[in-house]
């Protein structure tokens, strides 16, 4: 109740202020409208009345005649375009002699192309109702956008009579029936024999006109779409008519036929109605058509007379009520100003005495501008959070579809200066937290990480002009650095790393592992650079001490140590699971364990390799749209696997508890029709991956669906995008050739559908090694197995 009272008081105060200010501007407007509203109406009424109806009738008649000639020309053009289009299609090489012998069911692609062509022809002109293609052969067929075998002998005979016509292209006044064997109502059709250049045609293309659209086109020849319009052939038969007044139309048709003239204009009276009649010839292929347009003169002159009298009366009355109208008009003009004042007014706003309405609006606008500046300031305060969100998306690869130019423009929008800059990432991992239980109670990881990120931010402010700190909330902090190349020398970066380690050790008393990426000048390379940093962090010594790892300084020995892990088999296992090949996945897991044991791997090495394989599989499961937590019912799969010591038990556990549940869930989600199409696409990729022109659009055309649908189904069934599957298939084939053949790397690139300059980059991104490093690693493994 109090709110209602307060609201009523506010409205009363606003109305009171508006009444106080409703003076200066309002009075000026009222005087202006008094002058302008009184005189123009009288002048216009007298002017129209003096010129009279006859003058306007003559001008309108001439305009109608001119308009009708233009419409006739337009109608003639419409029919001419139809004739030209049909002739063009009849000479199309697609309708050649082969159609007379072609098996349309076996060569379904040709059948599909014909139906597409008929659909295109049907939509090429608005006057076309439908398009039919009849082919006379042992078993006659009819295309009516779809393919039919004709069995109706009466219908077949009708089309064969079309073929016997002496002209290749002609107009006919009767349709030849539908695919069902029935007959249509009277329609106009355009017929062309095919092939167009043949002296012995075997079929006909038939266009049926849309009668209602043709009639609407004819109605444009009369003003206001009133009157009579129709077309006659050279025999005097009615072709098209609007059927608005059938009896007068028949009398007019008889009048024109008995006159003996082919063109002319005359006034025709029928039952106290006068019509201005114009008729003429439109030359068609094999005959001349006569167009007739009869416009009632009253439809032209009556509105003018009524309008003239109405204006005179309104003008006379307007003189008496000029003051009233001026007051009302001024009120309406003043309404937008009044609304602005109400919007700018508030309950606490005092009345602006001595100011007119616009001065008050200007004063309030200044206050609004001040508030806008205040909001802009608040937005700038939120800019660091927006920057952090952008960096997280950039590092995690969510912006990989953006170009280098787009990424730089976005960074400029967030207030960064990207000119003459290099970029580098520092990954800071807090270690030994579990040994500090006496200092930090359990569950305080986020608080410790927050403190570390603040320390890193303070140090970066004094060292770099532009940077971004990312708190990952899991005892790890990321530092994104933007700086000129001279301030990112390796020695300077190492000094900053040591300073960061000392500060965190002194304040938090916790050890850290700091990994430095290689510098880059491309924003689009940052996601790949971050992946290298995460991978390099795995080379740290498994001891609780400070460590600095530099991606560019990692030793060859460390890289070779990681190379013992069978990456290619891991990719094969994941690929088999994505493809739903359970037996293949089981076999590859057995081969994976066998290869680990063949390299004399210790128990802990085998266990770590299996845990890494499990992590990769879980990552693939999440990418496919399935939640591992729900799939495994909340079980800690890594803990269960770490308790198993025997390789055979590891194999059985991985197959029964990980691979089988995933494949069952994936099978339950996929529809069998979708799976069949996707499997056909997968098979096509395996057969033609070596072709450089294979693409999503190419596979979609072969499957008979659009590329968007195939892409969505492919992702739904396999869990990966089409291009990722194609890339994995090509990389698998390239890996096999690198292991089992001595072909040059450039030749292998061509064999799997890549150009060499792209092959090296894509292979390293997928495998982690260049093709030459991968071949050398496998050669060393073979030599070690022999000895």
Sequence-ordered SSE layout with sheet pairings:
Blueprint: H1 2-21, H2 24-38, H3 40-90, H4 108-123, E1 128-135, E2 141-143, E3 147-149, H5 153-163, E4 169-172, E5 189-194, E6 203-209, H6 211-219, E7 228-232, E8 238-241, H7 246-259, E9 264-270, E10 273-283, E11 288-296, H8 297-320, H9 322-344, H10 357-381, H11 383-395, H12 404-413, E12 422-431, H13 445-463, E13 466-471, E14 476-483, H14 490-508, E15 511-516, H15 526-537, E16 547-550, H16 556-563, H17 567-578, H18 582-598, H19 603-623, H20 628-631, H21 637-642, H22 647-669, H23 672-688, H24 696-703, H25 707-718, H26 722-740, H27 745-751, H28 756-767, H29 771-786
Parallel strand pairs: 15-16
Antiparallel strand pairs: 1-2, 1-6, 2-3, 4-5, 5-6, 7-8, 7-11, 9-10, 10-11, 12-14, 12-15, 13-14
What is this structure, in a nutshell?
The protein has 29 helices and 16 strands. It has 787 residues and is of the alpha+beta class.
């Amino acid at each position: 109740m109090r709110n209602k009272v307060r609201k009523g008081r506010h409205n009363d105060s606003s109305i009171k202020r508006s009444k106080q200010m409703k003076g200066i501007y309002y009075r000026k407007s009222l005087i202006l409208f008094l002058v302008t509203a009184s005189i123009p109406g009288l002048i216009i009424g007298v002017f129209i009345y003096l010129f009279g109806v006859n003058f306007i009738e003559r001008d309108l008649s001439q305009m109608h005649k001119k308009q009708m000639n233009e419409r006739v020309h337009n109608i003639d053009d419409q029919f001419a375009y139809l004739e030209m289009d049909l002739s063009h299609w009849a000479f199309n090489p697609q309708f050649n002699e082969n159609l007379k012998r072609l098996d349309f069911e076996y060569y379904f692609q040709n059948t599909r192309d014909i139906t597409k062509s008929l659909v295109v022809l049907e939509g090429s002109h608005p006057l076309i109702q439908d398009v039919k293609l009849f082919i006379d052969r042992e078993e006659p067929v009819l295309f009516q956008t779809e393919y039919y075998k004709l069995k109706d002998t009466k219908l077949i005979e009708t089309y064969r009579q079309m073929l016997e016509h002496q002209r290749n292209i002609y107009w006919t006044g009767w349709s030849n029936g539908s695919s069902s064997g029935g007959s249509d109502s009277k329609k106009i059709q355009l017929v062309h024999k095919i092939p167009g250049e043949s002296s012995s045609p075997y079929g006909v293309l038939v266009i049926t006109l849309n009668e209602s659209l043709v009639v609407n086109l004819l109605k444009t020849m009369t003003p206001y779409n009133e009157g009579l319009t129709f077309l006659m052939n050279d025999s005097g038969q009615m072709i098209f008519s609007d059927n608005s007044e059938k009896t007068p139309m028949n009398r007019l048709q008889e009048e024109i036929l008995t006159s003996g003239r082919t063109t002319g204009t005359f006034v025709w009276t029928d039952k106290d109605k006068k019509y201005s009649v114009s008729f003429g010839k439109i030359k068609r292929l094999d005959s001349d058509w006569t167009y007739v347009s009869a416009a009632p003169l009253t439809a032209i002159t009556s509105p003018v007379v009524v309008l003239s009298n109405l204006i005179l009366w309104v003008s006379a009355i307007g003189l008496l009520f000029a003051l009233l109208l001026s007051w009302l008009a001024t009120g309406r003009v003043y309404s937008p100003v009044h609304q602005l004042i109400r919007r700018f007014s508030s309950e606490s706003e005092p009345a602006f005495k001595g100011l007119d309405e616009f001065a008050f609006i200007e004063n309030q606008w200044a206050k609004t501008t001040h508030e806008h500046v205040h909001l802009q300031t608040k937005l700038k305060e939120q800019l660091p959070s927006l920057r952090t969100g952008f960096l997280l998306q950039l590092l995690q690869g969510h912006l990989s579809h953006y170009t280098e130019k787009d990424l730089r423009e976005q960074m400029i929008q967030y207030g960064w200066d990207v000119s003459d800059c290099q970029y580098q990432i520092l990954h800071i991992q807090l270690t030994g937290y579990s040994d500090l239980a006496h200092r930090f109670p359990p569950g305080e990881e986020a608080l410790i990480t927050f403190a570390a990120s603040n320390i890193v931010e303070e140090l970066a402010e004094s060292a770099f002009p532009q940077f971004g700190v990312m708190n990952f909330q899991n005892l790890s902090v990321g530092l994104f650095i933007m700086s000129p190349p001279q301030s990112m020398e390796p020695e300077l970066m190492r000094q900053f790393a040591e300073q960061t380690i000392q500060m965190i050790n002194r304040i938090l008393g916790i050890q850290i592992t700091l990994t430095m990426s290689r510098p880059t000048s491309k924003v689009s390379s940052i996601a790949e650079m971050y992946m290298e940093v995460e991978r390099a962090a795995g080379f740290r010594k498994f001891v609780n001490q400070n460590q600095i790892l530099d991606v560019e300084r990692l030793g060859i020995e460390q890289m070779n140590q990681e190379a013992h892990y069978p990456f290619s088999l891991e990719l094969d296992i994941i690929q088999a699971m994505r493809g739903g090949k359970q037996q293949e996945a089981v076999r590859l897991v057995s081969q994976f364990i066998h290869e680990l044991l063949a390299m004399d791997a210790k128990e802990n090495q085998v266990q770590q390799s299996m845990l890494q394989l499990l992590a990769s599989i879980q990552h693939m499961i999440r990418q496919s749209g399935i939640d591992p937590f729900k799939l495994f019912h909340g079980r800690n799969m890594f803990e269960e696997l770490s308790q198993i010591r025997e390789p055979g038990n590891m194999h059985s556990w991985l197959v029964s508890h990980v691979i089988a549940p995933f494949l069952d869930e994936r099978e339950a989600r996929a529809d069998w029709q979708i799976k069949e199409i996707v499997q056909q696409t997968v098979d096509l990729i395996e057969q033609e991956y070596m072709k450089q022109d294979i693409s999503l659009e190419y596979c979609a055309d072969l499957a008979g669906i659009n590329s968007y649908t195939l892409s969505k189904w492919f992702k739904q069934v396999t869990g990966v995008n089409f291009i990722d599957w194609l890339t994995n298939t090509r990389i698998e084939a390239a890996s096999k050739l690198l292991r089992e053949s001595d072909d040059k790397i450039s030749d292998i690139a061509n064999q799997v559908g890549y150009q060499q300059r792209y092959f090296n980059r894509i292979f390293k991104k997928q495998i982690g090694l260049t093709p030459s490093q991968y071949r050398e690693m496998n050669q060393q493994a073979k030599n070690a197995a022999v000895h």
